[in-house]
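User: Here's a chain of 335 residues. Predict its fold as tokens.
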Amino acid sequence: MSSCSFDPHVMECLGPLVTGGTCVMLKPLGNLDLNYVISTIHRHRVSIAGFVTSFLYALHEYLEQTNQFHLLSSMRQIIFGGEACHAARIAPIFTALSHPSLNIELVNAYGPAETTDTATYHKVTQQDLDRNIIPIGKPLLNYACHILDEQLLPIAVNELGELYIGGRGVFAGYFGDNDMVRSLNNNALVRLPFEETLCYRTGDLCRLSETGNILYCGRADHQVKLRGQRLEIGEIEACIMRVEGVTNCVVMKQTNTRTQRDFLVAFAQSHDSNSTNDLQKVIMCQCNTQLPDYMVPSTVTVMDKLPLNVNGKIDRKQLLDIELLEKNTGRNDDM
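Assistant: Prediction complete.
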């Protein structure tokens, strides 16, 4: 599914070939055609596929609309990742794929390119959905994961910290020999007293559950400071995803170039375009009742479909361009 320039391509191609399997390749930009993807899976009797999370959402919606779940009858497992997932959005997918006629396993995989793609994985269960959170799981063989505080000390269970990954899959450093590359490597690769090899600093905020599973809580650089308060964008997105009718969402910080004041904007995906205004009101009501004032988005834009880039991830730059266009047409974003 992935472009050859996207790191999961290595696992998707080499994984089947080194284990005696067959690798089915899509035509160029074939991942942008959902009907073609489904037809290819059915024609070649594909058993395992890997999708970016946003693409999995889109695929599920297409299968529901066209009633073509039976075309996935050859599949045993779908691996998804590359983006944070929302339990509320995964729940209907899990239900559909767990039907006895399909019985397809869903696996949430996690790992930066710097750790040779996948470092942890978790098979989604009904218990995850009941708890409303899907872990990224536990380390693969030959990997070690550490959740540390700012002093690089291990934190307690359920406390928030930054994830560091050690093991054989950790890269040796970014290519190049200049001051900029050396600075990047010094920041990314850390030697810990309890690890034999260098560890990669992921920049991802995580918690460790009582069961030993790692819970992804967002990016350290996505932690936004707004009106003197530090907040996590993922918490706002999870709140919006619980609104009925919302199939995907993105929340971003914007800056008013005239006043230099920061504010939050939300983009929500829904296929019921006839009730856009009503859904905007419901989302704002949900945020106002379940979130502190400083975490409530200033605006909500409802769209039929969030734009995706060629790798199947949400195209945040395009969303920012949409937001800028709306500003230039006279919308007031002052707080």
